[in-house]
Amino acid sequence: MTMTYDHLAQPISIGSVRLKNRIMKNGTGFFWDDPSTGGFMNDRYLDYFEELAKGGAALISSATGPLTRDLDAAMPGFKVLTDDYIPGWQRWADTLHRHDCLAFHQLFHLGPMAPLLVKVPPSKSASALPREKSPRPGFGDFTAFTIPEIEDMVDLFAGAAERMKKAGLDGTELNGACNHLLNNFLSRAWNKREDEYGTQTMENRTRLFVDIIKEIKRRNGADWPLIAMMNGEEVDLADGITLAESTQFAKLFVLAGADALEVRAEYYTWVDDDDRRESLHFPDVYFYPERNGPVDGYVDGSRRGVGANIPMAAAIKQAVTVPVIAVGRLTPEIGEKAIGKGQIDIISMNRKLFADPALPRKVFAGESADINPCTSCMTCFDACEHFSEVKCRVNASLGKERLYAITPARAKKKVVVVGGGPAGMELARVAALRGHEVTLFEKQHRLGGSLAVAAMIKGEREDIPGLIAYLDRQVHKAGVEVRLGAAASRAKVAALHPDVVVLATGGQHVIPQIPGIDGRNVLTAKALHTKAKALLRFTGPTLLRRLHALPVARDVMIGKRVVIMGGRLHGCQTAEYLVNLGRQVTIVDTGTQEQIGEGLLDVFMKPYLLFWLQDRGVEFVTDVEYQEVTSEGLVVREKDGATRLLVADTVMTALPLVPDRATVAAMAGAAPQVVVIGDAAEPHLIVDAIAAGAKVGREI
Questions:
Q1: Topology of 12-385 in CATH?
Q2: What are phi and psi of 600, to 5 degrees?
Q3: Do the Cβ atoms of 424 and 693 come closer than 8 Å?
Q4: Buried/exposed 370-409: b ≥16 CB within 10 Å, e otherwise
Q5: pTM for the predicted model, two decimal places
Q6: Is the predicted pLDDT of residue 557 greater than 80, yes or no?
Q7: The CATH homologous superfamily of the domain defined by 414-508+660-699
Q8: Quick check: 393 and 690 in contact, CB under 8 A?
Q9: Given this structure, which CATH class describes domain 536-653?
């Protein structure tokens, strides 16, 4: 039965403006600007937001660059510091309005987060806190704003909102969440002041936030719509904001003139190392790889962070009369149910709208199966935190909308694609949509390549099964002739007389050539993939993972003590899987300690997984040479020349892949043009495979 979205589809008002439905996008940065030229609006930014507006969102907020008085600071983001920026923002607003979409802007001040960026003004916060007492030690030492500087901050925010009204925008989203400056004044953990901006009273704590709301309303008019974004809680932070406190904040914000409240939470991490102690507003990552300790009563942990903020948003909604917006790993299904129950009024999305800007339109058209799914991989945020252009694992067109528009091919060609993994499926889809005659060979009986095995290993946190289903459906919808269970020999391919052959066969597994590697106590990655793919012919990766966890299966295949050869991405994720099966794991690698986890995303994912593995007794052995496998385990030679036996019932290989040179050589001359893409050319990540397929599919 197809789900309907009657509640999401209903219009609603925020102050004086009316949203055509209940889906919005809040403001985020993209690093698509050029700070060296002043951070003015550009076509690349407009192109993405036009696709987003066409995609059916009712309200879109764009983050401006962090506010500062230092006009020469190389701050990222599209600026709104002077009237010179008004024409660019007017173009942006006009772009959204052409598609019946409201144009809001998000204003924020980084506060103590400034040290995370490059060549920016010295960081300041509500209070001067030494590193050892800071809720985020990585921010370093920062100073406190003086009262004249605080009063000037009101003018800085209100002046930006005033320019946005002149540019023709429809309203303001005021970001007082995360650990940005406005939140610092609200939080007893950040604010240690003893003056009228201290935490002695609710009025003092909210004074700056309230003054900014009032001044924006004074300059732009009482009917200027304003959304106040706030933390419902600072989870796991001593003296952090509680729901009881945020409910009182909410009432004061509405009294000051806020027309809607956007509720999220800031989650503080559990690691012991101060250098890695962080906070985040991604509830799904808070539960990665496994949440330790109690979960707050107003954090919904039933879906590993998906929809986790709804209970706190629902509690705040009971205290106010304006619409309440929820944000934080939401789905249309969760939003529909929560609105129907009266818990919230509007859902706000970001990552899902990176993956598919047309998500709202597809939801309301009953085309949910055609939504490109966000897999919650955090590729986008990792890029942002490295000051790189934001990209998306599953949507290679993000930030390249004009360049990657599907246009008819100049000449129709016969294209044969060998390999039905992410690179091959994406290329086949794009090439077929452009008018080429495409045939895809996949030797397995299902499309997906190694994605299904990755889904089994990774588990439910990343929606890899959804990605497989989406690409499979799109390949068939595009008219690709799919030949499953068909190994593509050179003769079979040549018989089709193709103009182009694309090899997307994936990378090859490395098996160390040492004595004993073919022993009964060794399970190579190649053998594991072969067995898993054979079983996946009959079932999906989620069910296979559950079946493998049953004692009758796990105890037959894998011993209680496991040594994994390879400590990069593949090895660490395999270790996570095995630890969850109750195995005692040792990871051994020929590289250095610093290379452990290489390939995992540096932001959140890598440090969290490595800490989790260490906490569960996983030993990391590095800087060794593999010598031999014996009946007792793996023998290695250490840096000092000494040999060491790593005791194991099972030795597994999980080494980085290498290019598929054998297939490339075998297919030479099978067509006038032979192209190698994805892991077959150079093994990387899923994002790189899909990007390669998208790029080459448009070049044929």
A1: TIM Barrel (3.20.20)
A2: -75, 150
A3: yes
A4: ebbbbbbbbbbbbbbeeeeebbbbbbbbbbbbeebeeeee
A5: 0.96
A6: no
A7: NAD(P)-binding Rossmann-like Domain (3.40.50.720)
A8: yes
A9: alpha beta
